[in-house]
């Protein structure tokens, strides 16, 4: 089953955290055929939110959610079950300073 890992944080990563990146996490999972996609995102200020109301397209600058935590990157994993996906998520360096939401993909 495929799982989406949404990597979030309440603040911009430090220079040290940026330099570490995924710390070999991505390379290891790619080699083992577990990581099937993913990437980092530009800062939330670069987002455009799209809504359609009464047939009118409404655009707004910035992210949809008015929350403290913002998505900074994502990964798609092929795992046997949720326990395996959670185990891999817990090994991602960003889990030590942010949060990682794990969700099964439909289909």
From TrEMBL:
InterPro entries from the entry? Dimeric_a/b-barrel, YCII
SUPFAM superfamilies for the chain = Dimeric alpha+beta barrel
Q: Which residues form the YCII-related domain?
A: 1-105
Which one Pfam family would you cite for this protein?
YCII
Give the family per the record. Belongs to the YciI family.
Entry-linked PANTHER family: BLL7171 PROTEIN (PTHR35174:SF3), BLL7171 PROTEIN-RELATED (PTHR35174)
What is the name attached to this protein's record?
YciI family protein
């Amino acid at each position: 089953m495929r799982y989406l890992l949404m990597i979030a944080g309440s603040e911009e990563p430090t220079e040290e955290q940026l330099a570490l990146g995924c710390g070999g996490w991505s390379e290891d999972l790619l080699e083992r055929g577990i990581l099937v996609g993913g990437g980092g995102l530009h800062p939330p200020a670069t987002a455009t939110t799209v809504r359609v109301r009464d047939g009118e397209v409404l655009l707004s600058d910035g992210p949809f959610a008015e929350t403290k935590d913002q998505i900074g990157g994502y990964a798609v994993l092929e795992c046997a079950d949720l326990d395996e996906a959670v185990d891999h998520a817990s090994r991602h360096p960003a889990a030590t300073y942010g949060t990682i939401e794990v969700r099964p993909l439909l289909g």
